[in-house]
Amino acid sequence: MSSATWPLWEVFVRAKRGLSHVHAGSLHAPDREMALRNARDLYTRRQEGVSIWVVASEDITASSPDERDSFFDPAADKVYRHPTFYDVPEDVEYL
Amino acid sequence: MYGNDFGQADAPGGRATTPHPLNAAETPDYTDALAAYFDGLIEEDQRVEPRDAMPEAYRKTLIRQMAQHAHSEIIGMQPEANWITRAPSLRRKAILMAKVQDEAGHGLYLYSAAETLGVDRSELLDKLHSGQQKYSSIFNYPTLTWADAGAIGWLVDGAAIMNQVPLCRCSYGPYARAMIRVCKEESFHQRQGFEILWTLSRGTEEQKAMAQDAADRWWWPALQMFGPPDTGEQASGGHTAQSMAWGIKRFSNDDLRQKFVDMTVPQAQKLGITLPDPDLAWNEERGHWDFGPIDWDEFWRVLKGDGPCNEQRIRTRVQAHEDGAWVREAAAAYAAKQAARQQSEAVA
Ligand SMILES: [Fe+2]
Ligand SMILES: [Fe+2]
User: Fold this and answer.
1) Residue B66 near residue B107 (C-beta atoms within 8 A)
2) Against a cut of 0.95, is the pTM above it?
3) CB-CB under 8 Å, B332 with A25
4) Which residue, of A13, A16, B86, B89, has the greatest Cβ tally within 10 A?
């Protein structure tokens, strides 16, 4: 049996104009060209997309769920970034 | 399998046992903290994502279930592909090709989901080829007539949908997302199957008999697709209780089977097909259809290799894999050459 394993690619699909590309899944392909074609056949058989990105999985750097709390900590105590933080009179319109 | 999980536990080994943070635990406190974190996710009905800490048994169960599900999808291509060249019209042929292609797609979505847990697809395929991992026993039955293409879509895809819809809420994120995609595609599979039988059932006497014969042969194996009962002696081969506690499974095998029977009986009546079960009767008190005993000995026998087509299915699969080896190698060689050329151009 063949041991030549093709690298893994992550596939992102834009469903229609005006929307961002969204992660759809992954696939194996020998190169980026074939990854794109395979992604078309695998993830858009029913016109689910108007644009596809493929990214080599090994090129993705991800935050770790283990350090989730400390990593996102800097945003945790800045409630003043939200509009609801502010005390304003109730009868002022368009605010 | 086909969205169910039972049968022998996976052989240990391979990269499936790659240490996860949980295994690297140096202190009991660390292990406890991670276990509490995982239990919290399950309790809140949150999704578990690939890099989360999770118990090794949860990870192994998922890999085994997703692999068996993926194997079922790709082995399931064979019985129907058997009729592509002999489909009765161009319309039917195009539909059948699209359906079989979808099943290949389902297999790939599922292998891709399994790979998020650190296994490699080629490793799972090796296990399928060597018989270490199973696929749904239903695909070990032959497709003898064109009506079988109809019966498979109607009954086998119908049962698969029943199993797969609850998996869209499975606790493991990538599996749930793959299932949402799969379920969207399945309803055409079931409808095209029903349409084939609907057409035959309004045809000549021979065509009607052909539809009836296919239903006779596929009905019981379809009921077996839900897996052995969750209670009693037969339950020992299953993992229902643990899988339900982990939020992998949402309904018991027996519940899903009953739902399937309740859904299918009126459809059979519409087709003018008599389901091959003399005990089939509406139970006013339960509000469900009663049905006769299932032959679980046959189920285990077929699952363990002694069905009419087990050997042929694996042989065909291995042959396809080996015949495709030169394509995989050539494409990899071409990619390597292109990459080397680009690199030397960049240096120059
Ligand atoms: Fe499928
Ligand atoms: Fe299907």
Assistant:
1) no
2) no
3) no
4) A13
